[in-house]
Task: inverse folding
């Protein structure tokens, strides 16, 4: 099925969210919590920020969680939900990367309370109604408007000191949202525009981000905002399915898994989704024609020091058939047909770091 143009008919949904993008905007956090009328909040943040945020909120911070874990293990989600119930929380404040935001979403899903998010990575999760938890090596995802943060504060100053070895994969994680949004079956003229702007912004920012330039961090944060918007308004396809199966099923690092997979999936889908491939190719240094966009993106990522092999992330080779079987057991809609032999070749190449065809 080709996705070479936006469907003539479409349904577009736009949710309300307040976004503040400004250096120093984290200082607005108490005011934003008060503006929502929240008196008893649970703070979910990494250790670097937990005490600082709790101090800013004072008596309003009735629960503090300082150890959010990758892929949101369901046992941690249940433990924090129990604490939230006991403390009678009426809101959540998430400060950190995708793990902090994801854990806050898991609590919001059951407690139906609003989230104020202050992202410190480029995951884009703060802009979406997508939630996910992991149990028994299986990652379960869904969508619910209640988990989408009501307020998002983007503060580039918080990214100072973000190691480039983590920042670059985080940016590729966000980029994957926009690439898949550009060929999603439910895309609209608005999501196409946002996705293409997001792709261009993120790919332009990445070299400066890899050089630890403050302008690169700010540009990537702006790109992450738009990438998250793209994912919020469209459905996910093969790339995200693979990332969820591999990352959640084998405890691989989330952003790095996205980084390795994206060029391979783009190459797989390029013929069926030439507009998405063209958007990536046009934004890469030197440009690339749509059929070569996947390989060009892979070379670009490698040049920035990003990971290129699932084997290096810890995926055992004898798991590849299981990965393909799991993807095909409950596939996501995808522009190119999901052929088992072709998928097996894709994951083999991603595992070995072989060039994208």
Result:
């Amino acid at each position: 099925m080709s996705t070479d143009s936006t469907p003539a008919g479409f349904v577009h949904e736009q949710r309300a969210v307040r976004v503040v993008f400004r250096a120093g905007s984290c200082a607005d956090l108490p005011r934003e919590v008060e503006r929502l009328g929240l008196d008893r909040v649970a703070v979910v943040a990494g250790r670097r920020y937990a005490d600082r945020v709790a101090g800013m909120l004072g008596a309003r911070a009735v629960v503090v969680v300082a150890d959010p874990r990758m892929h949101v293990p369901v046992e941690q989600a249940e433990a924090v939900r129990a604490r939230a119930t006991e403390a009678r929380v009426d809101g959540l404040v998430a400060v950190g990367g995708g793990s902090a935001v994801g854990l806050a979403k898991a609590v919001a899903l059951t407690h139906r309370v609003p989230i104020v998010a202050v992202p410190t990575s480029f995951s884009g999760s703060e802009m979406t109604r997508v939630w996910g938890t992991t149990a028994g090596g299986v990652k379960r995802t869904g969508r619910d408007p209640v988990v989408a943060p009501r307020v998002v504060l983007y503060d580039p100053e918080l990214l100072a000191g973000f190691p480039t070895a983590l920042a670059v994969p985080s940016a590729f994680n966000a980029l994957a949202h926009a690439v898949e949004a550009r060929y999603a079956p439910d895309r609209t003229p608005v999501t196409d525009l946002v996705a293409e702007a997001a792709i261009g912004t993120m790919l332009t920012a990445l070299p400066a981000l890899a050089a630890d330039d403050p302008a690169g961090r700010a540009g990537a944060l702006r790109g992450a905002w738009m990438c998250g918007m793209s994912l919020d308004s469209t459905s996910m396809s093969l790339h995200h399915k693979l990332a969820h199966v591999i990352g959640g099923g084998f405890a691989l690092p989330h952003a790095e898994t996205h980084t390795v997979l994206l060029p391979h999936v783009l190459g797989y889908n390029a013929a069926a989704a030439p507009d998405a491939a063209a958007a990536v190719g046009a934004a890469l240094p030197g440009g690339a024609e749509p059929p070569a966009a996947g390989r060009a993106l892979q070379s670009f990522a490698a040049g920035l020091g990003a990971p290129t092999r699932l084997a290096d992330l810890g995926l055992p080779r004898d798991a590849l058939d299981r990965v393909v079987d799991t993807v095909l057991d409950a596939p996501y809609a995808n522009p190119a047909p999901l052929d088992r032999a072709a998928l097996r070749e894709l994951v083999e190449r991603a595992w070995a770091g072989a060039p994208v065809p």
About this structure: Residues 189-210 form the longest helix (22 residues). The mean pLDDT is 96. The first strand starts at residue 18 and ends at 21. Strands lie at 18-21, 41-45, 61-65, 91-96, 115-119, 130-135, 138-143, 151-154.
